[in-house]
Sequence to fold (59 residues):
Amino acid sequence: MRLHLGAEKADGLIAADLKLTGALTALLAALPSLVGEEERRMADASDPHRVHTVDLTDW
Fold:
């Protein structure tokens, strides 16, 4: 699933890819700090609505 999130530190929307299994409540609680981790960012030219994409599918 892809979530589009607004963040104060970003110049636009951040796309977060995640799986809807496992500890979803913990993932949602950690989301603000996870989207800021640059090592999680990935290249994705398929979504014109985001500034960058964060891969959380393995979290």
